[in-house]
Amino acid sequence: MVLSSPPPGGDMDDRSDKFRAFYAQLICAAAKTTDPRLEQAFRNVRREPFAGPGPWSISFGGHRYVETPDDDPAFLYQNALLALDSARGVNIGMPGAHAYWLSGCGVREGETVLQIGAGSGYYTAILAELAGRNGRVYAYEIDERLAALARENLKHFATVELRERSGIASDLPDVDVIYVCAGAAQPATEWLAALRPGGRLVFPLAPEGVLGGMLMITRPEQGAAWPAKFLGRAQFIGCAGLQDADAGRRLAEAFAKGWESVQSLRRGDVPDDTCWFAGDGWWLSTAPASAPAVTIPPHADITQA
After folding, report:
1. Of 49, 53, 102, 56, which Cα lies nearest the Cα of 81?
2. Beta strand pairing status for 112-116 and 136-140?
3. pTM listed for this prediction
4. Would you say 82 and 76 are in contact if contact means Cβ atoms under 8 Å apart?
5. Coiled-coil annotation: which residues (predicted)?
6. Does the N terminus or the C terminus of the chain have fewer Cβ atoms within 10 A?
7. What is the per-residue pLDDT across 116-170, written as a single tens digit (0 to 9) for each?
């Protein structure tokens, strides 16, 4: 366990431990994962600091927020969206969805992880648990208020470095995993450049207002075609600097015709008849890359974060 915060005491904390143990099992069942490391990570990280003082506004995605009657921690340990800023639709995302996506990208002990869109830091803490004591997590958050919350919430995580700025920059560290929690119309070239061979980029190909998909791209040891696969549907708030209204419209049309057949990301060359969607200088193909794509179990849930 990476966390070394001073233990709070009392009956409420005993109840929180009980709720959290059940919640970890529940969301890993929802994510169809049997990875004990992932379940342990969700069990280890208390949600209370990241949610802030109650009562809280929660939603099951696509529905209005409902305010909890009080600050009983039982309300936090559900597979639901938890509002950080209900007016802007900024949430701690659906745990079952994130558990599924994290299972897909397979963060390993000792890896270096880059998170874009840390929010108040809850999934940053989960990533730190997965990377372990020998790993490292660089978390970027451009919103000043959220960055301040994340900095306070993560101060006991020795392996986490919070950076209060945009995660679209030329000086990103070289990493094994990039986990993006903000919707984009395209993969940032800076993210692709920061990936080490074998590294995985997981991001919502879903501009603001578009129900898109969580796309995982793996950097091969060699070759211009990178294995790519959608891990499921996803909708997020928009990532600043990576919005495009025309691309959003065309992506919505592409998703309406199916998305499960995507197998690779191509850059530079002219799209051929295997093209599922073409962006500016990149495109997604239904043809496999030279390296085998990562296989994950099917999951049809439509999820929001």
Report:
1. 56
2. parallel
3. 0.90
4. yes
5. none
6. N
7. 999 999 999 999 999 999 999 999 999 999 999 999 999 999 999 999 999 999 9
